[in-house]
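User: Hi! Is it possible to get a structure for several chains at once, not just one? Here's what I have:
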Amino acid sequence: GAVVSQHPSWVICKSGTSVKIECRSLDFQATTMFWYRQFPKQSLMLMATSNEGSKATYEQGVEKDKFLINHASLTLSTLTVTSAHPEDSSFYICSARDKRTGRDTQYFGPGTRLLVL
Amino acid sequence: AQRVTQPEKLLSVFKGAPVELKCNYSYSGSPELFWYVQYSRQRLQLLLRHISRESIKGFTADLNKGETSFHLKKPFAQEEDSAMYYCALNTNAGKSTFGDGTTLTVKP
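Assistant: Yes, the chains can be modeled jointly so their relative placement is included. Here is the combined structure:
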């Protein structure tokens, strides 16, 4: 149980276009989902916390108009990278917290690799 | 602000040798500490958490509040333990801060 999927697993796009990444909890309800960014050989950097039915909370330095997050249901959160530029190329990982088990249990998606040309 | 430090980026041991991956943290509140593991080409997954006080795959970690540490230990390393290990801290607000990770290589 407790599987989180991400789609797509990788995407290549042209500079200036927008890219949407989906994060789904497949067999549990997630009141909270997190979006992370990981640079090569570096740690995960929390970008934002997504709560179902409310606005996302962004970490300092993360542009909310650049990285749009929508958490429309208890099993789906989306991250849209708007007007993507090469510096947005990265590995994006989502995680979901199981509503039943509370604040300490996060399950991670496999990640989405974004390359902006 | 909270911070997690993993001083070793790379750690290499021989099979059967003891291994210790270091983790230190700073946080003014009551922390929840975790170890996550990422095997090659796989997603990040939870290895263990300090509140469970359990041993997973032979690994243990003890929270030492005096030294603000949560080192991960295993008495006899196996080749399949080779992976990237991340120490993470959850704040009272439920946000996670990760260390930079340690790549463990267990040589035959």
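The longest strand of chain A covers residues 30-38. Chain A touches chain B at residues 32, 34, 42-44, 46, 49, 93, 95, 97, 103-111 (CB under 8 Å).

User: Great, thank you!
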